[in-house]
Design a protein that fits this description.
- The structure is a single chain.
- By secondary structure, this protein is of the alpha/beta class.
- The chain has one domain: EAL domain (TIM Barrel), CATH 3.20.20.450.
- It is built from 11 helices and 10 strands.
- An 8-stranded mixed β-barrel has the order 1-2-4-5-6-7-8-9, surrounded by 4 helices.
- The structure holds guanosine-5'-monophosphate (G) (2 copies), manganese (II) ion and sodium ion.
- One guanosine-5'-monophosphate binds next to strand 2 and helix 2.
């Protein structure tokens, strides 16, 4: 099990990489933050997809520790960005199960000095399907720290709506599959997206569209008053050293 050995080493030495994908604010049409995405390489230096290594890290029981390291690395990186740039970090169910999540987030903020208001945590609804009440309490405690909470991959789960109104998410991120259809599906997909945006706004949540790959989509989403956009058209995940172009062009 080569992957297990790679993971064990990565968590022991904390030497995995974080990539960052820009989040665009619709009105200003400029990057206003980055989502941290973990990257791990095999012995040949090729990337192992997160969809492959995260489940293994969870089985190995190291995802809680790895998640803490991601929070630490991410918040430290964000301290080097301009003040208006926020950081989004994905959370895994293992971090909620361990019971240390709130302490870990608090510690990462203290250690890095990143203001809580600049941190956003992304969860998927599957996380709320088990231990719902306990996990909702942890989300509440996180919001009390001043961080915001986003529901990721919205629309792909079994009961997106069921959890949406039970908790004051600050943001929903519409899963990129809604933008992925071909041209003739576009009108229908836009209807659905428009409805999700209205739903989010009626619950006082911001709405992000993921998977934006064309200028046409940018225009349509702007018309629909989508709050934030993310996708390869606007920027691919990139290493820390390559991010400054996103704020240098603002100046
Ligand atoms: O990074 P990529 O574009 O391949 O992401 C694939 C999946 O892996 C996404 O669902 C993303 O949320 C998840 N993922 C990427 N980085 C992290 C991370 O640091 N922590 C957790 N929990 N999930 C991550
Ligand atoms: O589940 P989550 O949203 O955290 O996953 C982020 C993943 O989505 C990353 O793997 C990232 O590479 C991928 N991604 C981001 N933007 C796009 C896009 O425009 N198109 C496609 N196909 N994937 C994207
Ligand atoms: Mn995400
Ligand atoms: Na997502």
């Amino acid at each position: 099990r080569e992957l297990e050995a790679i993971l064990r080493r990565a968590v022991h030495n904390s030497d995995f990489e974080l990539y960052f994908q820009p989040l665009y604010c619709q009105l200003k049409y400029q990057a206003c933050g980055f989502e941290a995405l973990m990257r791990l390489r095999d012995a040949k230096g090729n990337f192992i997809p997160p969809d492959k290594f995260i489940p293994v890290a969870e089985e190995m029981g190291i995802m809680d520790e790895l998640g803490f390291q991601i929070l630490n690395k991410g918040t430290k990186a964000a301290m080097k960005w301009p003040d208006h740039m926020r950081l989004a970090v994905n959370l895994s169910a293992a971090q909620f199960e361990s019971g240390s999540l709130v302490d870990h987030v608090h510690a990462a903020l203290e250690e890095s000095k990143l203001p809580a208001a600049r941190l956003e945590l992304e969860i998927t609804e599957s996380l709320l399907m088990q231990n719902t009440q306990r996990n909702l309490r942890q989300l509440n405690a996180l919001q009390e720290l001043g961080v915001s909470i986003a529901m990721d991959d919205f629309g792909t789960g079994y009961s997106s709506l069921g959890y949406l109104w039970q908790f004051p998410f600050d943001k929903i991120k519409i899963d990129r599959s809604f933008l992925g259809g071909d041209e003739k599906d576009n009108a229908k997909a836009m209807q659905v997206i428009s409805t999700i945006i209205a739903l989010g706004h009626s619950l006082e949540m911001r709405v992000t569209a993921e998977g934006v790959e064309t200028e046409r989509q940018v225009e349509m989403l702007n018309k629909l008053k989508c709050d934030q956009l993310q996708g390869f058209y606007l920027g691919r995940p990139a290493p820390e050293a390559e991010l400054s172009k996103y704020w240098e062009k603002d100046a």
